[in-house]
Every structure is written in structure tokens, then in C-alpha cells.
Amino acid sequence: AAKESGGDTFRFYSSEMNARAVSRMDMEANLRRALEQEEFFIEYQPQIDLITNKVAGVEALLRWQHPQLGVIPPTQFIGLAEETNLILPLGEWVMRRVFEQCVMWKQEGYLPFRVGINVSGRQFVQPDFVDMVCRLLDETGAAPELLEFEITESVVMKDVDAAVLTLEALKKLGINMAIDDFGTGYSSLSCLKHLPLNRLKIDKSFISDLQDNADDRAIVEATIAMAKRLELGVTAEGVETEGQYGFVQKRECDEVQGFYFSRPLSPSEVADAWLIKR
Ligand code: C2E
Ligand code: MG
Ligand code: MG
Ligand code: MG
């Protein structure tokens, strides 16, 4: 497992190597090279419909296959990619790759399912973000109504008026929108009500402690109820146990995503294990 240390140093631990520190500048140069060499790949984690128990969608999750350090999780490099604006070309690479994968699954004859993509705030606020999405849809032929962009509350709240315009434009394209990590940011509920959203994804930090923490139980229960009243889809993220699954299912949560059902998988693994051919 890789662990981020404080200050200017990123420290990676991998099975083949002993502890090794990589300076921030090294990391930045590393990231640039990785983009050029396309050292990234994408895994897909199923999202299960709690009524049918079938896959309703998958979430695309980025990984970095570092030649020496092994697979580096996104929590270890997205922050730096954002600070250095490398998230812009990287985010575009992810989007193109995922759109192409959607088209391939369709060509292989799988029944339609949603595909979630994480969009960084840096990307979302680019003046040409919607144009870029449009262009990629055109170039790849991906179906926008099967796509769901995930953004966090803070991205919306930073500039609500601008966010509304972007959200409206994406909605016009047919793309679905989800709030990721819901409950960890500060969003005004009265504001959320007016946004063109499709889904709230309850942050996994509220799910992990459900068993022992009455506050978390109250928060999860209330969030599910609120989402339903606002006619939003609601996904519980990070469901690992039967107990957590049972709790959200009883509260009529729509979907769950978590290790209880599946870890993130390669495109062919997710297809073999979860997708259904017509
Ligand atoms: P996220 O969007 O909230 O994604 C869910 C994270 O929870 C994923 O971590 C997933 O592997 C993990 N997870 C799912 N089920 C479980 C579970 O049952 N237990 C536990 N402990 N974890 C679970 P991952 O893949 O490490 O991604 C971390 C974050 O990195 C993502 O959180 C997202 O914010 C960011 N990220 C991933 N891919 C991209 C990307 O393409 N672009 C951007 N901008 N951010 C990305
Ligand atoms: Mg997400
Ligand atoms: Mg999340
Ligand atoms: Mg997150």
C-alpha cells in the first residue's frame, strides 16, 4: 500500500521496494512522463441496484501503473495533478478512454448501463469544459445518456451561478450528474434543490461505521430520505459488509457500490462478472 506523508515529500511503499521517498518535483516530472507514456489505466467498479440486485452502472476509477513503484492509487496523485493543472490533460485522457470503452461494450452487445466518471473541480470550471465534452462525444460516439459525471459539493458551492450554467449545459447534452462524497462538504440544501442533479452518492465515511455509530446511521437514513423526496437517485458508497448492505437496503437506498459486491475491476473482468449480453 502507498501512503502519503506530510510536507513536500511523497512516499511510496511497494512490495518490491523498501520505503522510498520521491520529491514533489520528481513526482511532477514523473506525472508528466506518465501522461506522455500513457502509464495510466482505468478500473470499473459495479454499482448494484438494490431492487433487482443487478448492475445499474459502473464507476471509472483511475490508476497509475508506475514502471518502478507499481500501481499507484488516485488519492496519491490527483491532488498534485490538480495543483499542477496536469489534471486537465489527464482528465481529458480519462474521459476519452472511458467514452471509447462505453462504445466498445455497446459493440460487444452488452445491455446499456450507466458509467460514472469523476470530474475534478479544476476541469469543471474550465471555460471550454463543455466544449471538450461535446468534442469527445462526437469523436467517440459515446451515448451521453449513459454517462454520469461525479463532482463534489465544494465544486458546486465555490461558484454556484457558474456551476448552474455548466450543469445546465451538460444536462442539455444528456449527461447525468451526481454529487460524490455527499455529506463531507458544505452544501446548502436549498441550493442543491435548484441544481439539475440526478444522484447523491453518500460518502463511504458514513457507511464504514454504521454498525457502531448512531450519528452515522441518522445521517445515512436522513440522506436517503431526502434524496428520495427530491427525486434524486441515491447510492451508498463503500458498502463492505452484509450489515451495511442490509441497513441501506431497508431504508430503500437505490444502489450500492462497495467491496461487499465487488472491488474495481478491469474492463474485461467487469464485463465477464457483471455485464449482461442482449
Ligand atoms: P470516489 O470517486 O469517491 O471513488 C470511490 C473510492 O472508494 C474508490 O477509491 C474506490 O475504490 C473506493 N471504494 C469503493 N468501494 C469501497 C469499499 O467497500 N471500501 C473501501 N474502503 N473503499 C471502497 P479509489 O479508486 O482509490 O479512488 C479514490 C478517489 O480518487 C475517488 O473517490 C475520486 O475522488 C478520485 N478519482 C479516481 N479516479 C479519478 C479520475 O479519473 N479523475 C479524478 N479527478 N478523480 C478520480
Ligand atoms: Mg466518484
Ligand atoms: Mg465518493
Ligand atoms: Mg472522493
Automatic annotation (TrEMBL):
It comes from the Bacteria. Transmembrane segments: none annotated. Residues 24-278 form the EAL domain. This is Diguanylate cyclase/phosphodiesterase with PAS/PAC sensor(S). The chain holds residues 401 to 678 of 678 of the full protein.
